[in-house]
């Protein structure tokens, strides 16, 4: 065996990295190498332009700890065709509902309020325009009220002889209680506050009398005008001459009785011919001579206004005792004048009507009887608008509700679509396995 001088071997004079380490560090550590490898791989976030700090918890306490709104970077989001469709649908729905809310706010809303009529009114105006199928000289028109006063209304109203055919069926006349088809579509238009306010600017005159045809005798009588009566319960009646009240003169033959009539206008309060009342343009006919028509009216004082706060300001605030009736009436009348001067307030009366007609025996009194009763309540119909702040709150509620409900619907549809996609994948993979087995068997048979 040859002799080798180890002192002259080149490896003994080179510097090894492990020579300066401790004996324990010279041993190989596999776990440290693995950790170093993982660290190197995780640092690859920077190679893909990703911010690893977004996933780290921030130190310290700040307002960010109370942030309840989730945030996702745009690089982590994907846009789909279904999401675009849902966005367009929700945008259109938001636009339609927002437009509807704006239109409702612009139109306003109507409120009805009932209260006890605190004022004392002594007069009641009645506006009457009707045609009777009898000559004017054969009719007697009177008013009897609960105060015991009897008013010869025939002397205060205008009476003109006319022809029945000139009025019968004109101006869309109909029978009381007719259906919408019988009355016509236009007669059933709902009148709002603006209709009553616009009536202030229109003419307050009765219709002109039609010309009498030459060579013909009149067979009817038109009775029209206004009456100032006591504001109490009363009875307005039209009867034949010599029947009902004792009077001197010739007794009217029963064969001349014909109480068929057409009511063109019957209203209480200021005369607004453009407004429709329950008995306006109604007619009733009968072939019998002894026929009694009865109308029962319940009259309710009504205020139409677009400024309910102004009505409250104009109302007299003086507290009076029960003995100061004269001062009460004076204050109430002045309040009515001040409120009536306003162009956004109308004082009028509404009424409900019940009709009853039947043939009566010859010892009874035929005719047309209108019984009216004043209700001790006041109806205020006001048109109001919400404030812009209330409109803004409603718009926010509408849009946010659509977005929240639309988000839920989109998530449910996306989940259902994903479930269907997974089911199809399972079916395709199962069919592929079966197909693969068959193909392998065919290949083996070919070999």
UniProtKB/TrEMBL annotation:
Residue ranges occupied by any Endoplasmic reticulum vesicle transporter C-terminal domain in the UniProt entry: 217-406
Primary residence: endoplasmic reticulum
InterPro entries listed in its UniProt record: Erv, Erv_C, Erv_N
Domain of life: Eukaryota
Stated name of the protein: Endoplasmic reticulum-Golgi intermediate compartment protein
Record-annotated Endoplasmic reticulum vesicle transporter N-terminal domain positions: 63-151
GO-annotated biological processes: endoplasmic reticulum to Golgi vesicle-mediated transport; retrograde vesicle-mediated transport, Golgi to endoplasmic reticulum
Compartments it resides in: Endoplasmic reticulum membrane; Endoplasmic reticulum-Golgi intermediate compartment membrane; Golgi apparatus membrane; Membrane
Function description: Plays a role in transport between endoplasmic reticulum and Golgi.
